[in-house]
């Protein structure tokens, strides 16, 4: 059968004996054709063209094609003649002949968008039709597609109710109008669904036509070249969706931390959480937080951690090894000119071995059963509590950890960093000289210029209050214009230097050369008996963490900073 014959047959199928039933304009139907997306099934039935699918019989005993997507296997209306009086419905599957540009043209049709929004509004649903223009990254596209499908399901349900509630003999022009409007809305929404699906298949990132290659997080490899994890830079840690995209983690959907903690406490939880918990406990007897929830925790770490805010990276480990070795820069090799056939000058070793040993970091907390089960914002509260608890101690140990087990070795005690002092007994700053001295020490070692300085809030306020002889705020030297000041309460202000016991420290450097290593994600263990008498539930959260300075000379420690 030729294409012309197929088209003619489609037109015959669309006509019905009842000419009083209104039909949508032909151009609207054409613009409302479901968009192009290659069928995922390779069966003969799925590989038919749109015209071939439309040519199916529509007699009293024929199953309406609408049932494929509206009824999902249910029988057609009780009165078989209803199919003769109701409009022809296009199949959900896309026309493989339509291009992505055609899909975008359909989505850009303002009339179709307004009509679809009106139908969605009639159902009392809140849906942003414009949000699709701002979707970036695989994770956001998956979330957008899930939202679209939920709206389509609601429209489909409303259409089923209209079909089932109206006998064929009472099918009116208004019923036909409502039916067509819902159909066109569903078709319009399916256009965006198929466009997103095509973009995911093609690894495109934006729905407005621009394309860029998908980039996963850089791989972390040990000294033997074995992959041990992925590294997330500050830019990659910016949002939950960015983290999920970089780690190739699917969208969490409706799964949240509150649901997970309820599941651990043997309360009612979602099917996805029950499936995750059914995999059993980890080596510590706890349940590992599902992978889909980790981006939420990691994104919440950044604003709570001064080191991550200053530019430190976070390596998510995928190795079972208790320790592994990385290569770090120890010193820059010295190049020298040589004569023909002359010897090559010797140079100090340029690299050093960094042994990473993630150590256990844990805390416990309690929550009432009623609050855990009934609070609508328990997810946000848990996310904030877990992130801040881990971030504060990761900051303290990352900066000042002694390295004596079980504590990790922090930046202060890593060999090779530069130091700047404030005299025998310390001194109260009256200028930005400490930062200029730190800059000088770092750059003199051929290390990258410092980008940030981490200090106690007391000292940050001190520098903010510096004034010149006229009482005006003291301007930073141009050399420090791009240096970011970051505060943390994890640096003490009662350190003893000489005869002074009120001193503090400032950490200056390029913190992109500093890395946190997080192994096994986060696991949660329930304390069954500890708080049973008060009707509360106790939880212990575990993580395994270590840090490393890939280039110690890129940092300087300023000591003896008085109030």
TrEMBL record:
Source organism superkingdom:
Bacteria
Predominant subcellular localization, coarse grouping: virion
What range(s) does the Phage capsid-like C-terminal domain occupy? Answer: 285-559
Bias (Basic and acidic residues) occurs at 82-95
Region (Disordered) location: 1-95
User: This chain belongs to which protein, by name?
Assistant: Phage capsid-like C-terminal domain-containing protein
Q: Specify one Pfam family.
A: Phage_capsid
User: What InterPro entries does UniProt report for this protein, alphabetically?
Assistant: Phage_capsid, Phage_capsid-like_C
């Amino acid at each position: 059968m030729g294409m012309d014959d197929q088209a003619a047959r489609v037109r015959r199928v669309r006509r019905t004996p009842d000419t009083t039933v209104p039909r949508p304009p032909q151009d609207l139907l054409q613009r409302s054709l479901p968009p192009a997306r290659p069928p995922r099934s390779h069966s003969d039935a799925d590989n038919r063209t749109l015209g071939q699918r439309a040519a199916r019989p529509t007699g009293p005993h024929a199953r309406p094609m609408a049932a494929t997507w509206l009824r999902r296997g249910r029988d057609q209306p009780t009165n078989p003649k209803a199919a003769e009086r109701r409009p022809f419905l296009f199949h959900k599957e896309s026309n493989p002949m339509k291009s992505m540009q055609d899909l975008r043209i359909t989505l850009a049709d303002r009339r179709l968008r307004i009509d679809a929004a009106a139908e969605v509004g009639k159902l009392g649903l809140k849906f942003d039709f414009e949000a699709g223009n701002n979707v970036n990254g695989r994770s956001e596209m998956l979330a957008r597609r899930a939202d679209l499908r939920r709206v389509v399901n609601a429209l489909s349900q409303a259409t089923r109710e209209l079909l089932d509630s109206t006998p064929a003999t009472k099918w009116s022009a208004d019923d036909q109008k409502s039916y067509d409007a819902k159909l066109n809305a569903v078709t319009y929404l399916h256009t965006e669904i198929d466009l997103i699906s095509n973009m995911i298949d093609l690894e495109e990132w934006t729905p407005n036509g621009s394309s860029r290659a998908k980039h996963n997080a850089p791989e972390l490899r040990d000294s033997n070249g074995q992959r041990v994890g992925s590294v997330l830079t500050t830019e990659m840690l910016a949002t939950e969706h960015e983290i999920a995209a970089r780690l190739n983690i699917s969208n969490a959907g409706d799964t949240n931390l509150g649901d997970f903690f309820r599941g651990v406490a043997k309360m009612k939880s979602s099917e996805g959480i029950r499936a995750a918990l059914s995999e059993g406990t980890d080596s510590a007897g706890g349940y590992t937080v599902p992978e889909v929830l980790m981006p939420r925790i990691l994104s919440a770490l950044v604003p709570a951690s001064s080191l991550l805010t200053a530019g430190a990276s976070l390596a998510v480990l995928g190795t079972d090894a208790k320790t592994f070795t990385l290569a770090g820069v120890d010193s820059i090799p010295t190049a020298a000119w040589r004569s023909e056939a002359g010897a090559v000058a010797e140079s100090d070793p340029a690299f050093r071995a960094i042994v990473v040993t993630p150590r256990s970091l844990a805390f416990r907390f309690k929550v009432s059963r009623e609050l855990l089960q009934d609070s609508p914002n328990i997810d946000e509260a848990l996310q904030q509590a877990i992130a801040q608890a881990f971030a504060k101690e990761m900051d303290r140990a990352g900066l000042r950890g002694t390295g004596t087990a079980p504590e990790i070795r922090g930046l202060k005690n890593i060999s090779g960093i530069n130091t700047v002092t404030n005299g025998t007994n310390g001194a109260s700053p009256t200028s930005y000289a400490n930062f200029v001295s730190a800059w000088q020490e770092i750059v003199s070692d051929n290390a990258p210029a410092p980008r940030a300085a981490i200090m106690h809030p007391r000292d940050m306020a001190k520098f903010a209050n510096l004034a010149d002889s006229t009482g005006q705020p003291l301007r930073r030297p141009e050399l420090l214009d791009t240096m970011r000041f970051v505060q943390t309460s994890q640096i003490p202000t009662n350190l003893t230097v000489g005869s002074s016991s009120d001193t503090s420290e400032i950490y200056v450097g390029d913190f992109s050369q500093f890395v946190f290593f997080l192994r096994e994600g986060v696991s949660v263990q329930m304390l069954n008996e500890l708080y049973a008498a008060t009707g509360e539930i106790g939880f212990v959260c575990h993580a395994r963490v270590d840090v490393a300075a890939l280039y110690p000379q890129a940092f300087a420690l300023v000591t003896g900073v008085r109030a």
